Amino acid sequence: MKRVFVAGVLLASHSVWAEVLITPAAADSSAPLAQIAPLESSAPQVQVLPADSSAPLLVLPPVTAPVMTEAAPVPAPFRVDYHCNGAQKISVLYPPYADADTKPIKLEWKGKAYRLKLAMSASGARYASSQLVWWTKGDTAFLSTRGGRMLVRGCEAQ
C-alpha cells in the first residue's frame, strides 16, 4: 500500500511558507523523507534526503506568506433616528454591539442629550438614567420618566 505525505512549514524567522510534497513512501518507514531548514540568507533552504523507495520527491518553491500590517477595524457606534407620535423626533447613538452591555447610549430629544445605561428587561432592550427610560423592541420604542409617566410613544426607527 502506498501513502502520500504532504507537509507544510512556516519558517517564522523568514516569513516564508514552504510546502513539501512527498509521494509515495513505505507505510512502515520511519526515516524522514525531506527536511526544511532556514539559511542565514533571506531564503530558506530545502534539503531532500533519500527515501527508501525510488519514487520521485517533489519540492514546491516557497511562497511569501501574507503579512498583516493593519489592525482589524474597530466597530463604530451607530445612530438610529425615530419618528414618534405628535411629530416628535428622537435620535439615539448606540454603542457597537460588542460594547452594548457596558457603554451607555446617547439619546437626543428636544435639543437635549441624555446618557442612559442598559437595564434589565424581560423583552426588548431597556435603557435607563436617573430621569428617563428608553425602551425598544424591534423597530418600535417609547420614552418615559423613571417613575413611569409616558413622555413619547409610538416611536418608529427610520
Give me some keywords for this one.
2 domains; 158 residues; mainly beta; Lipocalin; eight-stranded antiparallel barrel; single chain; elongated
Molecular structure report:
- By secondary structure, the protein is mostly beta strands.
- The protein has two domains: 2-64, no CATH class; 78-157, Lipocalin, CATH 2.40.128.
- Helices cover 0% and strands 55% of the residues.
- It has strands spanning 2-11, 16-26, 34-38, 44-48, 57-59, 63-64, 78-84, 88-94, 105-109, 112-119, 125-128, 132-137, 140-145, 150-157.
- The radius of gyration is 32 Å and the shape is elongated.
- 9% of the residues are buried.
Layout of helices and strands:
Layout: E1 2-11, E2 16-26, E3 34-38, E4 44-48, E5 57-59, E6 63-64, E7 78-84, E8 88-94, E9 105-109, E10 112-119, E11 125-128, E12 132-137, E13 140-145, E14 150-157
Antiparallel strand pairs: 1-2, 2-5, 2-6, 3-4, 7-8, 7-14, 8-9, 9-10, 10-11, 11-12, 12-13, 13-14
